[in-house]
């Protein structure tokens, strides 16, 4: 059997390990190698990536996308779309979502995974139809979760709804917490295959529990033909299994793949060097932790909770918050723990612990969830908790204001962007001051400095000395340099050593 790999190095790998802070210049030097490696698709863009690049990296995500698309010419690049929102934990107007899909296509993306954690498939279908205006591939996403509600039958029904949409090409089984074990796979995967009506299954499992590699082996044995992987330094931990390990396992199992393994090492060496230079984690190791199956929080969200507790001087209470997260999720009717519900559930858990009283403080987004603004929860919200939520000070106002649906013309007029829909998307989804600061920062860098402390010392010495010759000896380096601007002999520049 031939198994195709979808590369997650510059999307989920960096989202899970680097908090979406991979700039275009960090990937551009090896983008052409990723393109030649033989992946089915290279995953890249998502609204959270745009948010982080603008707000924290002061980098234009549209320009970065164009640079990478220019280097990745033969392999389709993928974007991720939450069916009812971009960036915000609220709900984004349909007109803006459709424009977001069109602009990503017009910048060269030709594959998309579309999801809604409450499985609002009509909105997913609408976006899939927009993608098909450009001939793009569309994956409908089934997020896996453990709960009394999320049975094989429940997931099969959702997969059947998506498979019935002609514009959806594949069904993506996505396990954000890495809790799908081999025993459950043996009943779930056949149920999904039957519901998919012949459409291929993709499998994505974040390796938080350390068992996703085994899950991939079982998936292939059950007939799954598309797996999501990442370059080894960007793999494992909260990310997906490494491409290196998966291709080896496929070969040992006697299956075929199209990956040029000779290109894996230079790509890995590059991202390892970039990660170390930037101070970001690489080469993560996953350990089996049963507690992960209790709270089912994605890896990146754990860091967010830790930061929230640190702001209140309660960093030592993380385990208490994780336990409370499981309780809040149960109260909320077991929403799947992915954006935005992992954030809503986790934030409410932090507030419950910090306040010392459950639901004494309730964010507007939790009220909107309980009011059904996001869709129908998998199970009813606990009646007592619902009463507490609706008794919060702003509940009546939030409930009375369901999400608005302005037209694209109204949005363009409101933000003053004319026909520049790239700018409209940024202005509508992000603070104006963040967009202005990003614009002021100048063009996107096409590389990333990989110098370590010793190279920085050499540069400082060269700048400080007037000598045309310099030798630096440390425990790990013996470096001899001559300034190439110096002239020797018959007017020829001296040769640097």
Under CATH, the topology of the largest domain can be stated as TIM Barrel
Low-confidence stretches: 485-497
CATH superfamily of the largest domain: Aldolase class I
CATH architectural designation of the largest domain:
Alpha-Beta Barrel
Strand order of the largest sheet: 1-2-3-4-5-6-7-8
Largest sheet: 8 strands, parallel, barrel
Radius of gyration: 25 Å
As a percent range, the share of strand residues is: 5-15%
CATH class category name of the largest domain: Alpha Beta
The number of helical segments is 22
Total number of distinct structural domains: 3
Number of extended strands: 12
The outline comes out as globular
State the share of residues found in helices, binned by percent.
40-55%
Give the termini distance in whole angstroms.
Answer: 53 Å
Detailed description of the structure:
There is one protein chain. With 497 residues, the chain is of the alpha/beta class. The protein folds into three domains: 4-278, Aldolase class I (TIM Barrel, Alpha-Beta Barrel); 291-399, Conserved carboxylase domain (Cyclin A, domain 1, Orthogonal Bundle); 453-493, no CATH class. 47% of the residues lie in helices and 11% in strands. It has 22 helices and twelve strands. The protein has helices spanning 9-18, 24-36, 47-55, 61-71, 94-106, 121-132, 152-163, 182-195, 212-221, 243-252, 264-278, 291-295, 299-311, 318-331, 341-355, 364-370, 383-390, 395-399, 408-415, 421-429, 432-440, 453-464, and strands spanning 4-7, 41-45, 77-82, 111-115, 137-143, 170-175, 201-205, 226-229, 469-473, 478-482, 487-488, 492-493. The strands form three sheets. An eight-stranded parallel barrel has the order 1-2-3-4-5-6-7-8, surrounded by five helices. Helix 8 (182-195) links the parallel strand 6 (170-175) and strand 7. Helix 5 (94-106) runs parallel beside helix 6, helix 8 (182-195) packs across helix 9 (212-221) and helix 9 runs parallel beside helix 10. The chain is globular, with a radius of gyration of 25 Å. It starts with a strand and ends with a strand. The model is unreliable at 485-497 (pLDDT under 50).
